Amino acid sequence: MIKVTDLHKSFGDLEVLKGINAEVQEKEVVCVIGPSGSGKSTFLRCINRLEDITSGEVVIDGESLTDPKLNINKLRSQVGMVFQHFNLFPHKTVRENITLGPIKVKDMNQEEANKLATQLLEKVGLSDKADVYPASLSGGQKQRVAIARALAMSPKVMLFDEPTSALDPELVGDVLEVMKDLAKEGMTMIVVTHEMGFAREMGDRVIFMDEGKIMEEGTPSEIFDNPQNPRTQTFLSKVL
Ligand code: ADP
Ligand code: MG
């Protein structure tokens, strides 16, 4: 589903991604861990072209992101992204946040879009919140709306960038539950997370990044129980 080959990304003189090679199969859940500043967010942002790629290649379901003929709107609808800080539209209701994309980008009519929003809100456990504004929601509820909004575009892949890092601890569980349901339904997912429990339970594979490189990757048990790279060992000794 995703193939990343020798991906480099620089901001001016600062090289943030230094040759990333990775593959994600359909229905696979890949968790990305690593210290702050190691390039995890930049990596995700390159995968849906929120950042231009400096060199290398990213192919998603057969389409190269560096192809000049790439339709960026289509790509973004196929690659859903959920951010740490939700990024909901504050002046739109929950329902409008969800229906906007399908109406604008997928030419869905209002009635269909409303129906879809109702289904998705049920899925994330927020059926009663369709007509409220984001400001009246808890962080966990906002994040579940953000997930519903991304799903409304019927993405082939979902990217999560520390989706629970901004949440009060008691709100983390509900968001992780929604993500687990998605994983069980067979969604292809890349999840940058500090939730090692989630990575261990739901990850088919775990990637450890440091200083713009993939230092180690393996099954959760390989990475968590028997890390080979000293940097992985040091990182895990701090977070586990
Ligand atoms: P992580 O998500 O692992 O914490 P990031 O991908 O956010 O890491 O950042 C990696 C490095 O890239 C950091 O040094 C950060 O300051 C830098 N960086 C990220 N985005 C930009 C940007 N738009 N302009 C300049 N530097 C950036
Ligand atoms: Mg980040």
Automatic annotation (TrEMBL):
It is a peripheral membrane protein. GO terms for molecular function: ATP binding. Pfam families: ABC_tran (PF00005). The keyword Nucleotide-binding applies. It is found in: Cell membrane. Keywords: Amino-acid transport, ATP-binding, Cell membrane, Membrane, Nucleotide-binding, Transport. Belongs to the ABC transporter superfamily. This is Amino acid ABC transporter ATP-binding protein. It comes from Evansella tamaricis.
